[in-house]
Design a protein that fits this description.
Helices cover 77% and strands 3% of the residues. By secondary structure, the chain is an all-alpha fold. The longest helix has 33 residues.
Amino acid sequence: MKRSRYALPYQVWMALFIIVPIFIVLYYACTTSNGASVSFSLENLAQVFSPTYLTVLVRSLWIALVATLICLLIGYPVASILASRHFKRSSLILMLIIIPMWMNFLLRTYAWINLLDTNGLIAKLLGLVGLGNVSLLYNTTAVIIGLVYNFLPFMILPLYTTLEKLDKSYLEAAADLGASPVITFMKVTLPLSMPGLISGVTMVFLPSMTNYVILDMLYNSTYIMGSLIGSYFSSYDWHNGSMIALILLIIICIVSLISGDSDSEESGRGGALL
């Protein structure tokens, strides 16, 4: 009885800030308004599956996948180096990785606008090597750069935590059995680090798929889901915006369930040399 009493504030918080907003989004998604009258309709759902909206959805998925893949290709080697027993500056490097997260999200994105501008530092450096007049702002490249910069720590930290706790005796046993570094990585390190990898991929892919600020500031186009939803709400079209947001919520739930099941399976499986 006491435990349920202690859980009451959390239940109220979940009801007010999670369940109620979801029902509000669901209400607007399943209704249409004609002046003062509001009626139930699935017209908004039919529009979501039109070729135009499907193109935007596929484009958003592609951008999120590319940003996640780049974060993984950068984050895994960095996490491996930081988790190595021979690396003595891991605490300092981790602090440098985390420090940008202390800054306001908006300020960090504004900084990249100045860097990617035609008169910015990156454009000037490219001009010195003969690659002038390269458009880096307000395009897909700028969005991917912004997503990778802002979400890379969310890939490195869970990978580092998993690799740092990895029992090094498994690696020594693999070496004693004559396994090459590549075989050791594929058969031992990668399977044992899978929980951190799945967590990192999930923490990067989901916000990359639904982010609005980076997309709006570095691209400013409605051909990406986050900006499209923002444009609907800005024009007070709550119904279409809510339906698209609801579809994204369903996609997020599916990805979260899949990643959660995979994480549980990999945690209990571990690595093997055979």
